Amino acid sequence: MLRYIYGDQLKAHERLAAEMFRDRADQFKIRLNWEVNVDAHGFERDEYDDLNPLYVIWENADGTHGGSMRLLPTVGRVMVNEHFPHLLGGGSISSLTIWECTRFCLSRGANPKVAAALMLAGGEIMEGFGVEHFVGVFDARMVRIYRRIGSSPEVLGQEGEGRVQISVGLWHFASVAKAQVAQKAGLSPEISRLWFDRAFGSKECAELAKVG
Amino acid sequence: MTASTALEHILEGLEQADGHAGLQVAIEALRDEMNVDHMVYHWVDSAGDQYGCGTYPAEWVQRYLDQNYLRVDPVIAGCYQRFHPVDWKRLDWSSKASRAFQKEAISYGVGNQGFSVPIRGPNGQFALFTVSHSGNDADWAAFTEEHTRSMLLIAHAFNHKALDLEPDRTPEHAQALSPREVDAVTLLAMGYNRAQVAQTLTISEHTVRVYVESARFKLGAMNTTHAVARAISRGLIVV
After folding, report:
1. How far is B183 from chain A (nearest CA, A)?
2. Which of B46, B84, B206 is the best mutation test for A, with the most CBs of A within 10 A?
3. What ipTM does this complex have?
4. Chain-wide mean pLDDT for chain B?
5. Strands, DSSP E only, in A60-165?
6. Is the pLDDT of residue A209 over 60?
7. A9: nearest CA in chain B?
8. How confident is the model at residue B86 (pLDDT cuts 50, 70, 90)?
9. Under 8 Å CB-to-CB from A30, ≥6 apart: which residues?
10. Which CATH number fits the domain B3-164, given the four candidates 3.40.1620.10, 3.40.718.10, 3.30.450.80, 3.30.457.10?
């Protein structure tokens, strides 16, 4: 299932969180050889994890981590503005309707549907919170994966070659794309919406509570 | 005057404000213009200092402070440390204390509907912008659907101004337009449409939208025309 968890809520999901940070170490340090820090627990964490971001996590049926991404609004501190302004053509991007998506991670051997499910979550966030664009930082392999699931970002700039290549790109979700991505994820839009409502509170449930 | 230009006009006044009184004038005007019961901007800094402006009845504000309702208010609990906008219906009103609080708030005229935008500023600053209203669910859903963007923008404009009025504020906080944003806004000012801007800058129309969107927020503008006007009047672009 898809989970939406703010940083300060991770302690209620200790095992899932630990696996996410270890899978990030596996992807970014071991497989991609990016210059990231891995701590004594084997966790890949950086300064942006300390800003209480919103994590979207795909939890496998057995409770393990399948994949995840990290979101922050661009009106605050974000990676693209602090580390990659040259890839944006100089300067910063800042808007309440543009969020940054970083550390898009898939666990080793994850089902390809996981990436689509995470993109679907991005669509829910856009629809639910008035977000119009995501600006993302991702590795070269993800470019192919995004293309396969039919939600390619527009790449604004890249640096490095091969495994260490880093791209900055933009997503613009049309509601049409959401149905398509849901299909690629093998999920019904209703189930996806239910998970979103469970995380952020449902309008219907509140109404029932008031009546009851 | 169309609704959009009326909002622009009010935001223009907010931008020019040189004191907190200007924020109050703007929030009352915006409340009237959007035809809702109440509008409130409330900020808490890392030292716990609070500041706000808004249209709630003075008796309710006093009551809220006296009772220290910050502790039971589900809107505060649901927005603090968060950055997604919240319809009040989505919050957890299940506890006895929060139900009593809601009932009391309604009796003071706050309204049974609400929409709050949390904002994270620099150095642990946290602010909340709220629109509240008395009405049925269907009308409220239609209102929030239509006005989410405007509410995000107004929230941002108030926070921008409030930061601006801070005495020890570091001047570099004022956000400059990036070179790409300057390019996009300049071409729009020259009368190019989005497709022509995209072609000239060899980027997609979607990306043009992102640059224009970001420029609009930095300029506190309601729409593209307003952003162009502001960029010109501030000398940020030359046409």
Report:
1. 11
2. B84
3. 0.88
4. 89
5. 65-73, 98-106, 133-139, 154-159
6. no
7. B81
8. very high
9. none
10. 3.30.450.80
